[in-house]
Amino acid sequence: MGSCLEAKFGEVRMESSGVFLGPFIHSERFEQVTVVDDGILIVRNGKVVLAEALRGRDAVTLASAHGVLGSPVVLRPGQLLLPGFVDAHVHAPQFPNAGLGYDKTLLDWLATYTFPLEARYADQEFATRVYDAVVRRCLGAGTTLACYFATIHTESSLQLARCVARAGQRALIGKVNMNVNNPEFYNEATQQSIDETHSFVDSVRAMQNSLVQPVITPRFAISCDMDLMKRLGDIARTKDLHIQTHISENIGEVEAVRGLYQQCSNYADVYDKAGLLTKKVNRAGARRAPPGGGAAAAGGAGHVGGALPRVQHVSAQRHVRRAAPAGRGRHGGTRHRCFRRTKSQHFRCYKSGIGYLHTCVILKEKLQAFKLSRSFLSSHFRWSKSIGYG
Asked: Is residue 245 a contact partner of residue 284, using CB atoms and an 8 Å limit?
């Protein structure tokens, strides 16, 4: 992570080694939140080596015992430390359309708003301007680990990876694959999609940045045929890559997939037959049907549920909760973050007030806010493990 990878909030700087005194919140186990009002946090070589209540002990002596020297940073009144948030599903190119499209269902929304916008990312200047803003906004909201969808354009997708690397964010970046049932202005030939995916993966890895990794990204089963999905599954296995896609976001989508893949028993079975249901896959949606059992459960496949459906649709909540005993990750998409611990850059210092864009807001009465913690963490804690960062 470098000798001085840091996050800055006000006057508090998080460096590769240091000692921090004040209140903090963290979680070490599923469905558990620990709140410490008078704590000490010791970071050595980029990793948290101690995070517990101070209990009247001498901070300098404790730090020295852990091989860390120097004066502690004391948080100001109204500040607290907490692990960085994780966003398991971010459509970076859709940032300019935020708030549009509530008059459309999914497939019409894609055709009317999303595909025309995403086609513009063939323009490198436009892509750079938007992606810089997206990464700044995510980091400003405390999201230190994100899983990004880009577009079908290799060069602009690489530009997103560069923006993330410059900002010091940890991220998975996916060049989107789409070869059927798409508008002519936003589509790929199958071999082109495969060739560009190889190029994208190799280019991201050539950056030699451990914080930024490629992820195989078939958009969903309507936009990709079985041949493309199988070949993408082969790439993921050969190169040991994560996979992200969508599943069962609404009734129209589910019916369309049923018509396209009549040989498959359900939506999840499509991905299973394509070889995409690995322990490194995360599927966004599953609001209208269960994420799938059998191979999905055995493979440890993850599931991403959006914040608003989690609150508004009982069926989505039921299906997501049902997946947990099978061992699959459950986690949140945009505007729905989670806590994680270990890397120093994942701790941010926040003033009391509303936590911008976050489902679990931080109020002046910070302990009261975390009465929401059980459902919050049960939806999200496992995601960092499912993508290899737990």
From this structure: yes
Banded model confidence at residue 275, pLDDT cuts 50, 70, 90: very high
- Rounded Cα distance between 258 and 319, Å, is 19
For the chain, the average pLDDT equals 77
145 Cβ partners below 8 Å, 6+ apart? 84, 85, 86, 87, 169, 170, 171, 340, 346, 384, 389
Are 288 and 148 found together in one domain? yes
Q: Determine, yes or no, domain membership for 370.
A: yes
| DSSP annotation string for 224-273 | S-HHHHHHHHHHHHHHT-EEEEEE--SHHHHHHHHHH-TTSSSHHHHHHH
* Statement to judge: residues 11 and 143 lie in one domain: no
**What pLDDT does residue 356 have?**
29
pLDDT of 373 above 60: no
Q: Report yes or no on 25 lying in a domain.
A: yes
Radius of gyration from C-alpha coordinates of the chain:
21
In a shared domain, residues 140 and 271: yes
pTM: 0.75
Q: Three-state DSSP class for 23?
A: strand
Is the per-residue pLDDT at 341 higher than 80? no
The DSSP secondary structure of 89-116, one letter per residue, reads EEEGGGGGGTT--TTS-HHHHIIIIIHH
What are the CA-CA distances from residue 363 to residues 79, 214, 304, 307 (Å)?
A: 11, 36, 26, 19
Main-chain phi, psi angles of 79, to 5 degrees: -105, 155
Structural domain of 367: 7-84+338-386
- Could you tell me if residue 259 is inside a domain? yes
- Please report, for residues 158, 211, 335, the alpha-carbon distance to residue 175 in angstroms, rounded to integers and kept in the order given: 8, 17, 22
Number of domains in the chain: 2
